[in-house]
Amino acid sequence: MTDDNCVFCKIIAGKIPSKKVHEDELVYAFHDINPWAPIHFLIVPKAHIASMAHVGPEHAALLAHMMTLAPKLAAQAGCGAYPEGGFRIVVNTGAEGGQEVHHLHMHVMGGPRPWYKG
Ligand code: AMP
Ligand code: ZN
After folding, report:
1. Closest listed residue to residue 12, CA positions, set 60, 46, 56, 37
2. Which residues are catalytic?
3. Which residues are in the CB-under-5-Å shell of ion ligand 2?
């Protein structure tokens, strides 16, 4: 369920500090250390799943939870209301997909434009 060499498993375990956004039995959410936008946090499953390429039908409820949680946490973090406001959800997968940390994570970005990146 966890990988001793994984930076996000260490964050979930409290071994590496993070700025918590939300926690429940399935997921942990925290601010990205190198934000692309005025609001940028990550939602990660507590279980170590390497990437979106590793998910199967057994993860359907977890993924639905992450997806439905994102708009709520975005609003709480200060993202403006749709349609003027909004947010971006990104899940980088594999090297060509731009994934650097190999523990599944959903980027949630928002806030007024221009953004620092993207
Ligand atoms: P990705 O390229 O999709 O794998 O994104 C990994 C993200 O994790 C990057 O946006 C990093 O800034 C972020 N990140 C890496 N280490 C930490 C950390 N210790 N705390 C918060 N965010 C981190
Ligand atoms: Zn992990």
Report:
1. 46
2. 105
3. 3, 6, 8-9, 48, 103
Q: Which CATH number fits domain 7-110: 3.40.1830.10, 3.30.428.10, 3.10.129.10, 2.60.40.1180?
A: 3.30.428.10
Q: Is the CB of 114 under 6 A from ligand 1?
A: no
Mean pLDDT of the chain: 97
Give pTM, 2 decimals: 0.98
Q: Count other C-beta atoms under 10 Å from residue 7's C-beta.
A: 14
Q: What share of the chain has pLDDT > 70, as a percent? A: 100
**What's the 80 CA to ligand 1 centre distance in angstroms?**
24
- 103, exposed or middle or buried, with CB in 10 Å at 0-12, 13-18, 19+? buried
